[in-house]
């Protein structure tokens, strides 16, 4: 193939046409000369079949952060490689630079770095690699493009986890709750810890009279927050999860809050499971307490909303089948009368009788700011009224409901978990 240099050379030499007796003969001679030079240049270009390509670099990166993937080009031909290499990724991968210019001597290698700044989570593959090998005069090139010869590479973009800024404060409250900084006290539904001697100020209801009789001293029971409980995070990935709340889909806000809850529950000694369901189970993580967070984040990374109505019968059935013991089931969904009234409420009693259920819903922060436009004002009031009606319907079944704006949703969810743990309601 010819480059723009061949056309420029022909245009430059065309200035000599008035010196020819026949301009047409001169044009043919000049065009033939340029074509001959281009053929020689094409022949001297390094053969692409002698190139060896390989990749190395990052496999995962958190959304919004930067990763580097390297492409190694080894020239196995006997001629120098003068090449332009275009390494194309999907647009949301944020790849720069788009192309590389490189000169590689025979039996040598060059490493080309591509910087990726993804804007969306999920798997971001390299989709196309185009190689052009130019001749020494730059008049012609050999080209090879496509997927068969391209070394495959996929960068997994993990969720942002912006809510990790709340984790130190919630962990400190958890330590206080567990008795690391205050004296362990009596609480309904908490676990027995040890016996100790009675001191002035202790609750007399905590006195163990049998143990006191055996020891001839007054002993009291001490209690600790419940441990080894099960927390099940259920993500609704149906059509309502695709709605924007603030600047991100509802599913992304739910993932951020679920990761924070999982991290906090793991530090509290509870076992955490996760399900993502719409009309089928899209993700499932059951890892207990050890090395949970990396596997959880990796499983949530490729999760995307599905434009289907969520099958809550399947959701309840999966939870009941997987969780035999009583657990805290946190259902991340939307407080929509249609979706919950027709789908969740009919099957909710089956779930609420076996487990403690918390429905966690996130809404757009704009709902807090009533606009001066009368039509938008009326629409906002109607939306708030419908959400309140749905919350009342859920609480009648003994379900906890958290309805919070996106900016404070993860923090309020963690506070709700700590409150339930403190009161022994898990």
Automatic annotation (TrEMBL):
Keywords: Lipoprotein. It holds the Pfam family DUF58. Residues 196-369 form the DUF58 domain. The keyword Lipoprotein applies. The keyword Lipoprotein applies. InterPro entries: DUF58. This is Lipoprotein. It comes from Phytohabitans rumicis. The lineage of its organism: Bacteria, Bacillati, Actinomycetota, Actinomycetes, Micromonosporales.
